[in-house]
Design brief:
Blueprint lengths: L7 H13 L5 E7 L9 H4 L6 E6 L6 H13 L3 E4 L8 H11 L8 E5 L6 H9 L17 E5 L2 E5 L11 H9 L10 H15 L1 H8 L8 H8 L11 H13 L19 H4 L1
Parallel strand pairs: 1-2, 1-4, 2-3, 4-6
Antiparallel strand pairs: 5-6
């Protein structure tokens, strides 16, 4: 399976972002804590040298030990990074303090462009910072399509549509993006993506797999076994693998499989739970 997704509106959005960069003082780059590397658009890195803050969202769904390692990694490279739990409002004060320190000479509020790939939580972050529901929020990529300026304490924010890059050279990256719904479900084979994910769980988070679905032997086909146990059956008792894959995707995206990070931190292998035990 090859996953590629770069609809026409993303080309227009990239042009728009280039124009809006002329109007702002810096960027808030929103990154999914479950994949701190894969969810950073490499094309956004080269667009400007203006100050940038990495805002990690969805830390409540990510492996906390890995999140700390990623924060240490970016800080060691002189990146400004803040981990947030937007459901609890954690990290918002740290963002405001960091913005104030970054632009001490400005005689007006700093103007910041909020950027990131689809479905990383840009609009949710803006809503939390502004304390109102001014930006559209959706559970699928492609919800935010137009320009939106919003006022927040200590800053002015400009929302932007989520954009990917034209070609995924690394298909493991594409698979990870599919798992967190940064790529539309309709454009990839969910069964193949979930097969990849279940193998990842077997190697890295076997306890999460066992606690959610029971003991699955190494010789078993995990998706078939999960489908059988969850009643995803067609006539004659045949497992409906498409339904079973949808079950696993939903369990992962809603945190029912526990806190999982798909990108191992640099310089260290992501230990399996067996190793940690």
């Amino acid at each position: 399976m090859t996953i590629q997704w770069y609809p026409g509106h993303m080309t227009r959005a990239k042009r728009m972002i280039k124009e809006e960069l002329k109007l702002v003082d810096g960027l808030l780059e929103v990154v999914d804590a479950r994949l701190p590397s894969s969810s950073r658009n490499p094309e956004l890195q080269d667009l400007t040298k203006k100050p940038r803050m990495i805002v990690l969202t969805k830390t409540d769904l990510a492996d906390p030990a890995q999140t700390e390692l990623w924060i240490d990694y970016w800080q060691a490279r002189c990146e400004t990074i803040v981990g947030t739990n937007l459901l609890l409002g954690k990290g918002l004060g740290e963002i405001r303090q960091s913005v104030a320190k970054t632009f001490p000479e400005l005689k007006r509020l700093p103007r910041l462009l909020v950027v990131g790939i689809p479905n990383v939580g840009k609009s949710t972050l803006i809503n939390c910072l502004t304390k109102r529901k001014g930006a559209q929020v959706g559970a699928r990529p492609g919800v935010t399509k137009g320009k939106q300026w919003l006022s927040a304490p200590g800053m002015q924010l400009l929302d932007s549509p989520g954009i990917l890059w034209p070609k995924f050279e690394d298909q493991d990256v594409a698979t990870r993006l599919a798992l967190v719904a940064s790529i539309r479900d309709e454009v990839f084979d969910q069964v193949e993506v979930v097969w990849w994910f279940l193998e990842f769980l077997r190697q890295r988070y076997p306890n999460s797999l066992q606690e959610r679905y029971g003991n699955i032997g190494l010789d078993d086909h995990p998706l078939d076994e999960i489908g059988r146990r969850r009643g995803c059956l067609l006539r004659g008792g045949v497992v409906d693998v498409n339904q079973a894959a949808a079950v696993v995707l939903k369990d992962f995206r809603t945190g029912k499989l526990g806190r999982i990070t798909l990108d191992p931190s640099p310089g260290s292998e992501l230990e399996s739970e067996n190793d940690r035990d």
